[in-house]
Every structure is written in C-alpha cells, then in structure tokens.
Specification:
alpha/beta, Immunoglobulin-like, Aminopeptidase, Membrane-bound Lytic Murein Transglycosylase D, Chain A, 3 domains, 6-stranded mixed beta sheet, 5-stranded mixed beta sheet, 13 helices, 17 strands, elongated
C-alpha cells in the first residue's frame, strides 16, 4: 500500500472510534402522564434510545431518573393534579451530557420502567409506571378471587373499551379518537347493565389509560361474557368502508381479509399503548391452547348472532354475519366478541360516532343483545331458569351470505340434525335470505 493511501486509511479508522464527549445526545421532547386507578404512567418521548438509571428516595418520597447523554428540549410541562401518586416533576443537569428528572410523590410508590422502540405514531419512549403498593395488592387479590370464585348467580358482563392512554386507536378526519368514543359507549352500556336486576358490569378501564391485552383477557375469568368495543379504521385506507360488525375468535385464520387486518391492528395495541414484554404472563401458550376450544368459540358466534339484529337497527352493518380472526383480546375462557361500532375513517360514520345520542343507542343495542343471550348463557352454567328470567325459546334466523348449516348450528348451540328436523330439510343446502327455525336450547334432534 502506498504511503499516502496508508495515511488516509489510518485517518478513516480514527474517525470510526468514538471519542468521549462527542457521543450522540438524546433529546427529551415531551412528557405525558396517564393516571389509572392502581398506578400512574409517565411517558417520556425521546429522539432515540437512551441509557438511564432509576432509584427511589424517601422523606419526602420521590423517584429519580438519571438519563445519560440526554438533554431537555423544553422545560418539563405541568402535568395537572389528577394523579393520586405523582405530585410534580423537577429537572436539573448532570455532570457531562446528562439530565436528572425527579418525580415528587404523594406516597411511597413502586416504580417499574422500560424502553419502547418506535411504534404507531410514536418514536422512542421511556415508560415509568408508579404503583400504589396497597391498591395493587388489593387488585391482584380481586383478580385471583374472580378466577377461583364459584359461579355467581348474577349475569356478569366484562365491558372492554379498546385502546386508551398512549394508544388512541384510530383517528377520524375530524380528529375524533377511537379511545374516547368507545369509552363513552362502554360507560353507557355499564349504566344499562348495572341498572338491570341480576346483572353486573365490570369495566376493564374507566378512564383514559392503557390496559394490556393480557390483563383485559384475565378480567374475563369468572364472568359470563366479554364484550370488547371498538371503532376502527379500514386498514386498506379506504374512506368508503362503513357500518358496524361483530367478530369472534378463530382457531384457523380469519374469515376475510378485513378481519385479518383488523386483528393485526388490534393485536399491535400493546406496542403502541406500552407494555413491558417481561410482564407477559407465564404459560401463555398453555392458556391459549385451553381457551381456543371450539365450544367457547361456538358460544361466541351465537352471542354475536344475538347482537347483530339490534345493531342493524341503529346503523348499517358492514358484515351481516359474525366474522372471525385471531384477536388476542378474545382469547378468554368465556364467550367473547369484539364489536366494531363503525369505521371512524368514514366521514359519515365518524359524525355518527361523535354523537352522544348514537353512542347511547349503540350501547342499548348491545345491551338488548346481551339480554337475548342471557338465558341460554346462564343455562350453560346451570343457573336456575328463575334467575335467567326467560327460557331460551325457539326463534327465527335469517340466513346470511356465507352461512352453512354447521356454522349456524354451532353458533346457536344446536346440531345440524336438529336444524334439519325443525325446518324439514332433506339436505344441507340453504340460501341467503332463507328463514330457519332455531330449536330451543338443548334441542339437538
């Protein structure tokens, strides 16, 4: 190698060696706070991944976060007074290229922290979850009690408003956020269920904060049904997609391209909402294997069929049958459906979804579907029919495009033979628009 080329080579190598003091400095661009009933979440938006150290101090209680090679772009914002745990934030420089952030606390909280890579509308984030130890212990005990409690004589409905907190869900042309619309509908449904004697509602979230999918699913244990409420956008970006639809879990893939795309979007919520992957419950594979049994899915399909006629009275349906896909949140041990109340990406649907009148009407439609399903669901777990209030009676079902006798039988808790007997069918041929008589629960021919 010639001497001149050798000199250039050594200079190039020297440029690749990191020099102390010249490391890339990460900017802290914003801080957001999301108070939940049992913890408060602080989210720091960063320009890149950062190294940090976190520790607690007492007298007074506070959490200290030292960010290495970082700087504040703006002064820390005032976070408001709505957290029972966080009293305020302070910041100061650290020796070298660093910044110290102090979280003043109202009580001795247990911090958990993790970094998130870019996802959805966000870049790099540092998440600090601050737990009230006493309340967290009570909530864990309540969840365990739900899982092992004997069957309740009440009809228990878990209502799941999708998204929340850092995860806004879909956003409409007018800036409407899915997380706010579905929370309003869920609150209306909660009031309807709670006011009905013999029924009990449990909300997975009651405010603007994120609940991990696995936690939502765990809250369904010990309940009779799980209802997840959404108002999504068309993953294909088409503004023409509109109308309500109902989804159940699938063991063997999605029933349509749209169902597959929606499930993919919803299953990615944990990446946007912010979940520490180390928090995923152990033995998930076994749980999923136990929960995706055909009997539970068949009950979910029947529950969805009970919802559709009432939703159709409130708004047009995007799909006239219960679609299926691998929604993680529906992998519960109880009949579970995900209801898309409309497409927030459609201007007409968005205007409707913003209306409190439409929100209440949608909640009432879901409630009527629950009332229709209540007798046969209670009968499934052996609750006396005097508690169920109305025995499951024969009713009519209108065949929808794509229906088969096997699928209709599964979704209504009967058999193909019973359907044939009830309708005097010689074979299995049916057609869209055909009226079928569904035998009463337990009528299996």
């Amino acid at each position: 190698m010639r001497p001149v080329r050798l000199v250039f080579f050594f200079f190039a190598v020297l440029l690749l060696i990191p020099v102390p003091g010249l490391a890339r400095v990460v900017s802290v661009e914003n801080v957001r706070m999301w108070p939940a009933p049992d913890y408060t979440r602080l989210v720091f938006d960063l320009s890149g991944s950062v190294g940090y150290r976190l520790f607690t101090l007492s007298n007074p209680d506070r959490v200290v976060i030292d960010l290495h090679d970082a700087r504040l772009v703006h002064p820390l914002p005032a976070l408001g007074n709505n957290s029972a745990i966080v009293a305020g934030l302070r910041s100061g420089p650290r020796p070298g290229h660093g910044v110290r952030i102090v979280v003043d606390l109202r009580l001795a909280a247990q911090p958990r922290s993790f970094l998130l890579r870019p996802a959805g509308p966000y870049g790099h984030r540092l998440v600090i979850d601050l737990y009230d130890p006493a309340k967290a212990a009570r909530d864990r005990a309540r969840l365990r009690a739900m899982e092992i409690a004997p069957p309740s004589r009440e009809f228990v409905v878990v209502i799941d408003p999708g998204h929340g907190g850092d995860d806004p869900g879909a956003t409409g042309h007018m800036g409407t956020e899915e997380k706010n619309v579905v929370l309003a509908i869920a609150r209306d449904l909660d009031r309807l269920v709670s006011a009905q004697p013999g029924m009990k509602a449990i909300m997975t979230r009651t405010g603007d904060y994120y609940v991990p999918l696995v936690t939502r699913r765990r809250m369904a244990r010990g309940a009779d049904v799980f209802i997840s409420i959404h108002a999504d956008s068309d993953p294909g970006r088409s503004p023409d997609a509109r109308g309500a639809s109902v989804y159940a879990l699938s063991e063997r893939g999605a029933t349509s391209a749209l169902a597959k795309a929606l499930a993919s979007n919803e299953n990615g919520s944990d990446w946007i909402g912010g979940v520490n992957l180390g928090d995923v419950e152990s033995g998930v594979g076994q749980v999923l294997g136990d929960l995706t049994k055909s009997a539970t899915i068949a009950d979910s399909l029947r529950l969805g069929d009970d919802m559709l006629p009432y939703l159709q009275r409130v708004a047009p349906l995007h799909s006239r049958k219960v679609e299926q896909a691998g929604f993680v949140v529906l992998k519960s041990p109880v009949p579970s459906v995900l209801i898309e109340t409309g497409f927030i990406s459609n201007p007409r649907d968005e205007r409707r979804l913003r209306s409190p009148v439409f929100q209440e009407a949608t909640a009432r439609a879901i409630f009527k579907g629950l009332r229709r399903a209540e007798p046969w669901l209670l009968a499934r777990r052996g609750v006396p029919l005097r508690i169920a209030r109305a025995p499951a009676a024969p009713h009519e079902y209108t065949v929808r495009p794509g229906d088969t006798l096997m699928r209709i039988a599964q979704s209504h808790g009967t058999t193909v033979a019973a359907l044939r007997n009830a309708n005097r069918l010689r074979g299995s041929t049916i057609f869209s628009g055909m009226q079928l008589r569904i035998p009463a629960a337990g009528g299996r021919g």
